[in-house]
């Protein structure tokens, strides 16, 4: 049977090309893999190979022809002894009917519904609480989940014998042994990838980065391997795991050790991003993170590790993702923050109260999913919003929050949203400069006064 | 450690030879068809064909047991066919259709099958190397005796994460076979132009990992070396490296004009070393099969490939609401 040979697309962007040279002539026998022609694409000159066996019956497009559209018949291949069919009887090029489908006008497909605000407290009023440091809360959460599920393990630099560079994994090696609490060499890219592979293989790894600054060496695995695989596999497999460690500025460690990655990771579909403030946040959210069937970025803070907070004494205390907490109620202005930013937000609210301004302070806790419903409800009440974070201003978390408010509650705003952020500079070492590079409670106070016109 | 020279066993059964022939031919014909569909605009983006390298995956799959895992790069169609994934689902993924293994959301470079223990299909050069070691880590943790085949190319062999992985794989005795598919060109850069230590498997010695060089155009040699590697891993001795010397006939991807090598170099390889022709000769000279037997197999393979191509055209595009699915899991998927 005669087969039409079509002008091929030889690059992702080629629509037409030049048939530069025929390397066969009518009457030649060709078999699969023989080079038939040279074709100039939009990028290069390519050799075009035969796929089928046969005899070149007729050459339809002469060499040197420019602007030959992809899928135009360029030659007819016949079987040995077969006649070339008349032009009008040539078999219809199958690609003519079956060319790559043109996208039809897409009906609007709704993105998943926006969250609904949930103001229930994290624990009941009659539950006993115990003062606990963030450090102990994180350790307790990991230990409880490791007792609960034998597939959970912890790996990272100095997590086992050294008991953690920041002592977060203190005691875990003794309780769970070297099989489940694993010291790695200093090799972030490699062990992050091994962690993701282990998650593909059915385990639930907790990968500790000594700090998130070093996770930049591993960010390809966090994003390309962990976050995207569920989607790319059509839901067949993903990476149920936690990447955790201290994030953001500590104290006097300079530019390469002082960066807040909240806004970076928050951008990635497929990741969940948690940034706890208090010890109860840390405990309840870490337990939820370990159980979550998706990759979770858990951004801790070195300065908060030693701070103590009330933690409920419960067998199994968890906090769901996507549920912000109103840490302080107020009617005059909404302050939204997360992680260590909460220390500035709460200090500012305290000062503002002395001046008769009642700020409502929202602790986001998870940045993805983000509880925008709680923010919007508050802004509809206060008509003003100030965001607080240590990260840089351009592409900040606050920038995203203000865009959500503008799109969803524009008519409620009595003043522009102000985003209080770290300064747009690498972190300096000098003590006085470092203090100025970070966001301050006074800046938050000033911003709140500005939006309340005081 | 000196390389162990693999020699083809003289007494291979006709059944085994025919099996290798059939599987290699399926990959060859499938890839030719994929190239054709690409030319027609039915397959988009990047498409990296495996033509010429068929003996590598077919030989190693012959050394694998049920439950063993495999992971590779973006040149992945051959691996998927060799581990038994349905050609229809592979081709439909190439055309971006609902019937593809990833529902059309992954494409040529990103395909997976939990059922066949195929863990991708990865588009970032060498990223699959620590992922493969991680799969082996999970198997060792569970103590299930499984082995992971982690394939990468001579180009990936210069990435830092390969050596980070070698170090930990040997440190923790992970049951992983590192298969370097040395097809001599990392896109357009030959091995000679990218390193002064061209014996890639020997780099494992720095980490204490044994290995060997294998004739990757000879499926029987690959299988034999694969069996040695798997035995090493299953005995709990840690990883093993196979540097399989192979050759790709086509360009790096469909849009590669391949000006970095001569037409004669490619033709010489096809004429003298072709893995399928080698087995064909063994079958005919050993009187294991007649010309007609082989023609019947050719016809059968052609029918399978045509059926896959038809399916890949007829399967509908994914529904638009698929845009929003599979971003987050609601529960941890069960192991296959």
Automatic annotation (TrEMBL), chain B:
It is an enzyme of class 1 (oxidoreductase). It catalyses: N(6)-[(R)-lipoyl]-L-lysyl-[protein] + pyruvate + H(+) = N(6)-[(R)-S(8)-acetyldihydrolipoyl]-L-lysyl-[protein] + CO2. It holds the Pfam family E1_dh. Its cofactor is thiamine diphosphate. The keyword Oxidoreductase applies. The keyword Methyltransferase does not apply. Keywords: Oxidoreductase, Pyruvate, Thiamine pyrophosphate. Residues 23-319 form the Dehydrogenase E1 component domain. Its EC number is 1.2.4.1. GO terms for molecular function: pyruvate dehydrogenase (acetyl-transferring) activity. GO terms for biological process: pyruvate decarboxylation to acetyl-CoA. Heterodimer of an alpha and a beta chain. The pyruvate dehydrogenase complex catalyzes the overall conversion of pyruvate to acetyl-CoA and CO(2). It contains multiple copies of three enzymatic components: pyruvate dehydrogenase (E1), dihydrolipoamide acetyltransferase (E2) and lipoamide dehydrogenase (E3). NCBIfam families: PDH_E1_alph_y. This is Pyruvate dehydrogenase E1 component subunit alpha. It comes from Yoonia rosea.
